[in-house]
């Protein structure tokens, strides 16, 4: 049986395979090369099976799965979509009166003496204020005026007042207008939905009935009290999950039969396809690297801490391991606060494929990336100038050490002269 471990990055896809004889095979392909294949991980699997299974698998034909024991994959699809702001268009449904809740955020100032404050860009395209309101029930000792609305019981057994029932007709009109504008995804953030989720569930059911392809309910994505981080996480889920789903669908469509595929999550654990979503996939690729170097480079008895530095094509990830995996539960990646368990990895939008621009006598880097297609100039596909080209001209990259997978026919070396 064949076992595959795959790192599908923004520029390169690396494939590790243990074939039936016990020998380990490693392959490297460009993550995007539409002139030669539709999907890099699938193409690598096809080539390895054709070479070592004794049965040729023609290009373009469904790949048989009888000899595949398992596939484990980490991907930077979500990471790069967030860094480059190439996620899906979506709208935020929020309790009436709280339109600017996520824009205001928690009012933190990371650099308190900076006079030039840059507000993070919101992921959502539109905000819909939904006429609904739930209030926490007052204790019997409270002397304030009684709260309006009938009492209801929350998921913890605590009581809430439904002061404003969900206005379904008004919501239907707003959702219909979103569909007319071409928006097919929504994130739903209602106050106190962590305790009383019925309004979010009803809004989500209506959205799905009307034809929305992605509905991210904040109480399902992250069931926590604080509305701001819960809302940001739901937005990240609505923004990125369609990218993940699209990739998984494309990858799985080329196989004949069922697949045993597990995806690496941001926390370093593996998840089946149906549980892999955008908010837990942001550090999917980098997390695999942390787990890998933690198991191979750290000496448990008296070993010094290990620093992990992973410079890919689109992003650079830095982490640390000192005998145990360090987890955080609230992180900010590319200006977006995410409330989900993640390995403690710092990511910046600066990789080998980050584009170089010449402005006012200086080179400016990124955050735009050339990706794998067309890629940097030296990939021989008419791409733009990037950090990789600069490193090649400066002699930091040696063409002889790279696989010959470039050019229109995917069989040429890096083009140092073109980059120069």
From TrEMBL:
GO (cellular component) term, any one: cytosol
Q: Which Pfam families does its entry note?
A: Hydant_A_N, Hydantoinase_A
Q: Which residues form the Hydantoinase A/oxoprolinase domain?
A: 230-420
Q: Which GO terms describe its biological process?
A: glutathione metabolic process
Q: Where is the Hydantoinase/oxoprolinase N-terminal domain?
A: 4-210
GO MF terms on file?
Answer: 5-oxoprolinase (ATP-hydrolyzing) activity
- What is the designated name of this protein? 5-oxoprolinase
Which organism encodes this protein? Macrostomum lignano
